[in-house]
Amino acid sequence: MQVIIITGSSDGIGAEMARQLARQYGAQLALVLAARNELLLQQVAAKCRASGAQTLVLKTDVSQQAECRALVAGTIEKFGRLDALINNAGRSAQALFAEVDDLSWYEELMRINFWGSLWCTHAALPHLKASKGKIVAVSSLAGLIGVPGRTAYSASKFAMGGFFESLRAELKESGVSVTVAYPGVVATQIRYRGYNAAGQAAGSSGLKEDHAMSVEQCASLILAGMQQGKREVVMSTKGKLGRWLKLLLPNLVDKIAMAALKKEVRPE
């Protein structure tokens, strides 16, 4: 039986990954579901159990190092092993830097998006080495290309990319794979709950989501990347193209980004 922790699994991409894994592996899988909303976690767990998987719900705030440690300790206490850690917990933000008065929420965003994944990974690493397991970090295309109006979010996701790229090299001989996923716009509620300039829930997306990737497709691509041991999963043709254009024509990328900010994504 394989044991997998998924942070941020109360809804959105994390919950969908849990459901897909449960359908795929059934009784051969134990899922540890972690997030702050225990009620939603229990609902996801019930669906996973209906597919035959074992579940353990652990209410966890990844912005607190002690809770990240407790998450891994609880997993080992219950199942005795760990085969994969999916660092999916995160929060979004949309704000022009010059319009932010109190920067404390920038620090909080870094604690959730970057430090949370680092802390969980640090606690899990000895067990993943023992099982020659897998680490997944769910970043964003904003972690590959700086996005105007998303300075805090981009910074946290760039930090994730740098950390896990470095860690991958360190773990090369250990048998532990490290996969970083870079989704684009996905049809979830993350942006509506993200910070605005005042550090409050934005309540709106600010992005045109007519062509957003479905949660189901995004989750499927991440899991396929994990199972195949891919280094990266860069989603959408636009994302892949933008990455190369940034290297070849950086000024053009800046112009496109600023035009998009004025037209579509200027924070409300």
Describe this structure in words.
This protein has a seven-stranded parallel sheet, sandwiched between helices. Helix 1 packs across helix 7 and helix 8 (237-248) crosses helix 9. The protein is built from nine helices and seven strands, in the order E-H-E-H-E-H-E-H-E-H-E-H-H-E-H-H. Strand 2, helix 2 and strand 3 form a beta-alpha-beta unit. The protein starts with a strand and ends with a helix. It is α/β, with parallel strands linked by helices and 268 residues long. The protein is globular, with a radius of gyration of 18 Å. The longest helix is centred in the middle third of the chain and has 28 residues, at 104-131. It has helices at residues 12-25, 38-50, 65-79, 104-131, 151-170, 190-193, 215-227, 237-248, 250-265; strands at residues 2-7, 29-35, 54-59, 84-87, 134-138, 177-182, 232-234. The protein has one domain (2-265): Rossmann fold, CATH 3.40.50.
